[in-house]
């Protein structure tokens, strides 16, 4: 009958639309990497010339800062290329060696999800690293911004890119060792593209030399760092688990009243999904976190394994998450 034909036609149309929407989701929002640096990879060594002969540094515009000093926007005079200048206080030879170690690490990394180094200048009291510039702010800002609603699918996109960056680092035998939302920059305010920054605490991993470290940010430290045991690739993966937990819930899994309590919570591996913020979160995401926040480092997922985990790789799940957002948005607008 005509009614049945119309019904079949409508179902076919809906199926076609769903397929088109899925195709759009997979090939646009979901899988394109961030833009690469606007320059070819360089092998940088420190120059002793005056940096101001080559670059205009905008001291008024502070892009970020930390234990090392400040990051400012700067422009290369000869090309007009917009870059970022990280000014690091380094008076002693020992301090300068630490910064040169950071330069060495950055020289070995060439990946769209890792910030790239352009040049370096050394003076008596400081070393300035000139790097790729991105203007989307820290990922941390999106976690604490009450006006910015991070969806689970947003988090999938962020974590997949961080995992891609870590996979490259680990393939090059480099550990980041200071992975946290402040060290992940968004490429722009409009997109979910990110780049890992700050390789000041990064170390080359040499399997025969057992590496111990005693630094980092308490909330993100792996148990082996606190216990002053050997660190390796899974040490970064623990931090990835903490970041995933934070992005999904806005909560910090181990944060105590003070650093001591935080460190004790980490050593006890005390964390849960009992908070209300996890009610609507997929089982796949909980499984993902559970495979990273494991006290024994040898049982944690690697970066390559994390990229194969269903939460980051299952297109049908991403489609469901996309629809969940779409439907809840419709309910709110109605």
Features:
334 residues; alpha+beta; Phosphorylase Kinase, domain 1; Transferase(Phosphotransferase), domain 1; two-stranded antiparallel sheet; 11 helices; disordered C terminus; protein serine/threonine kinase activity
What does this structure look like?
GO terms for molecular function: ATP binding; protein serine/threonine kinase activity. InterPro entries: Kinase-like_dom_sf, Prot_kinase_dom, Protein_kinase_ATP_BS, Ser/Thr_kinase_AS. Pfam families: Pkinase. One of its GO terms (cellular component) is nucleus. With about 325 residues, the chain is an alpha+beta fold. Helices cover about 40% and strands about 15% of the residues. It folds into 2 domains: about 50-130, Phosphorylase Kinase, domain 1 (2-Layer Sandwich), CATH 3.30.200.20; about 135-330, Transferase(Phosphotransferase) domain 1 (Transferase(Phosphotransferase), domain 1). The chain is built from 11 helices and 10 strands. The protein has a 6-stranded mixed beta sheet, covered by helices on one side. Helix 4 (about 150-170) packs antiparallel against helix 6 (about 235-250). The longest helix has 28 residues, at about 1-30. The protein is globular, with a radius of gyration of 22 Å. The relative contact order is 0.11.
């Amino acid at each position: 009958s005509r009614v049945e034909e119309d019904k079949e036609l409508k179902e076919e149309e809906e199926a076609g639309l769903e397929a088109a929407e899925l195709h759009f989701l997979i090939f646009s929002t979901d899988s394109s990497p961030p833009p690469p640096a606007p320059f070819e990879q360089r092998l940088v060594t420190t120059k002793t010339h005056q940096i101001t002969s080559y670059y205009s540094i905008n001291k008024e515009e502070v892009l970020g800062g930390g234990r090392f000093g400040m990051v400012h926007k700067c422009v290369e005079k000869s090309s007009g290329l917009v870059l970022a200048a990280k000014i690091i206080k380094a008076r002693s030879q020992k301090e300068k060696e630490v910064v040169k170690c950071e330069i060495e690490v950055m020289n070995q990394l060439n990946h769209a999800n890792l910030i790239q180094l352009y040049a370096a200048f050394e003076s008596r009291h400081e070393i300035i690293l000139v790097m790729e510039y991105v203007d989307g702010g820290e990922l941390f800002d999106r976690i604490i911004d009450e006006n910015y609603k991070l969806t689970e699918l947003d988090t999938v996109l962020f974590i997949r890119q961080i995992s891609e960056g870590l996979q490259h680092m680990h393939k090059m035998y480099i550990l980041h060792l200071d992975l946290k939302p402040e060290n992940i920059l968004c490429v722009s305010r409009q997109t979910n593209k990110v780049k890992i920054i700050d390789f000041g605490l990064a170390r080359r991993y040499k399997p025969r030399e057992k590496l111990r470290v005693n630094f980092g940010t308490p909330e993100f430290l792996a148990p082996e760092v606190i216990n002053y045991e050997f660190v390796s690739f899974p040490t970064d993966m623990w931090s990835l688990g903490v970041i995933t937990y934070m992005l999904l819930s806005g909560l910090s899994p181990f944060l105590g009243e003070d650093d001591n309590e935080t460190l004790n919570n980490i050593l006890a591996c005390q964390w849960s999904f009992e908070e209300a913020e996890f009610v609507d979160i997929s089982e796949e995401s909980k499984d993902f976190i559970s495979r990273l926040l494991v006290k024994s480092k040898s049982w944690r997922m690697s970066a390559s394994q994390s990229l194969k985990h269903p939460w980051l790789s299952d297109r049908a799940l991403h489609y469901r998450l996309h629809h969940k957002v779409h439907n809840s948005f419709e309910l709110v607008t109605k």
